[in-house]
């Protein structure tokens, strides 16, 4: 059953181009050049109850704008959105009772006061009973280790601690749908892992529908079975992560540095059919390969065994590269 | 409308302000300086005169001092806070809560005002009382009516600020507008000069505008110069303008909210 239905939604903004320089500045006073920007362009998708969907795209792709329309903050320029039975921006008051929102870039909590006071306020806003409140805090504490943070003012928390509190705040009133805009941005590996564990648990145990935006592909790999890819306002892909992998080559790359400048004979490595080798300069070489066909461990082993290597680095395909690849093909795919 | 969340907002504002207590100690000094400046100005103006208009010198000093004392109570920065919300993008998170944005702002301002009543208004009043000869309220009746009028003074001020703040949705930077409103309110509310000192036409117009309800009306009630019919009229005006300005704010915000753009992120 679909809890979110987005149909042919566009959001257009008007911006003004500014002319440069002093004379340009004076011209701007008198005449402005309006330009229409399509932040989101004719996007349609549905999300089923209990799904955890990753909404990805590079910076400025239109992710946040979509989330802001889904949460009722922005009004779509055209198209329609229904979520949890409401039109978000029209029935904002009732609709927001059933959703939770986290914007990774900024906190929803009150900056100067203890975290627990923010929770108390949210409890009253959402009319959460004392029992539910206690229960929710217990659940959050178990995964997020919240209790030590409760009596600290938000401004004294680290980014990771703050994000844990923000997540708890978003789930406090047991929402049916939760929107997370870049929940792992700027966090270290441990904090990221913490938050992913929490989301996994909440999603499976409480059957909360989660829509999360990120530009960190590993978030998606860990959490979401389904991905939506948006770029320059267009929805480029809607389907499973495996579908995405199969459909688009995921090139990985190994760069290795030699101990001494020599001309390397790559055929010695025995991967010539499946790996593209290239000597970048006297010391550095590059191997580009498809992870599905070649195990990177094997390749690294071969390199280390047959060449005098000082350093090896492995780069996986980033979401930017996939998006670039999809975009260069110019197709809207689904799988 | 359920009240509990709004009371909770007021409480949060109260707690928030506790974190910045020090601001108020400097505030008391500022207000002392303000009152002193006006004391000397009026002293010069009254030289050789029994009274100006309907005010004796002693009454004028009471007018100015009590005017500044109550300003410590009704004052708020709703306009600046809305402008900040919009400029920095905090508005996004606030819009995803099932609360009325206008009442949330007014409730927070009320929490602050309640806090300031004890931490700022009373100390300022005591400090001024020590230095300047103030008159007590004209009667118990006047004193009670004065307290009631302060509620309108708070509401009108808050509702006006909300309207100005909402302009930020369209204009983004409203510092100029906020400043213009600040001076307009200082003059037209009668904080600096009693409205009865204005030129006749302006005085007549000001009597029907909402600004006088902020300062002039409660002060005239305090001094017993508004009584009987005039008192009733001023309360009706207070109620009327509160409803009109809050209603206007409600309508304006609804309209503006559809035009919101969120900065950053």
The largest contact between protein chains, plus residue counts on each side, is: A-B, 35 and 29 residues
Q: What is the β-strand count of chain B? A: 2
What is the 3D form of chain B?
Answer: globular
Average pLDDT reading of chain B: 90
Residues in β-strands, percent of chain A: 25-35%
Q: Kindly identify the CATH topology of the largest domain in chain A.
A: Rossmann fold
Amino- and carboxy-terminal Cα gap of chain B: 32 Å
Unreliable runs of chain A: none
Based on the structure given, which CATH architecture of the largest domain in chain A is correct?
3-Layer(aba) Sandwich
Q: What is the count of DSSP helices of chain B, taking H or I runs of 4+ residues?
A: 12
Tell me the number of helical segments of chain A per DSSP (H or I, 4 or more residues long).
Answer: 11
The radius of gyration of chain A is: 24 Å
Helix content of chain A: 25-40%
Structural class of chain B: mainly alpha
N-to-C span of chain A: 19 Å
List keywords for this structure.
heterodimer, A: 335 residues, alpha/beta, Rossmann fold, seven-stranded mixed beta sheet, B: 265 residues, two-stranded antiparallel sheet, 12 helices, globular
Give an overview in words:
The complex is a heterodimer of chains A (335) and B (265). Chain A has helices spanning 21-30, 63-70, 92-97, 115-125, 130-144, 159-171, 189-205, 217-223, 241-247, 296-306, 319-329, and strands at 2-17, 33-48, 52-56, 78-83, 99-103, 177-181, 209-214, 226-231, 234-240, 251-258, 275-279, 284-290, 309-315, 333-334. Chain A has 335 residues and is α/β, with parallel strands linked by helices. Chain B is an all-alpha fold. Chain B has one domain. In chain B, α1 packs across α6 (101-131) and α2 (22-45) packs antiparallel against α3. Chain A binds chain B through residues 13, 64, 68, 71-75, 89, 92-94, 96-97, 99, 101, 103, 105-108, 110, 112-113, 117-118, 120-121, 124-127, 153, 181-182, and chain B through 2, 4-5, 7-9, 11-12, 15-16, 19-20, 89-93, 95-100, 258, 260-262, 264-265.
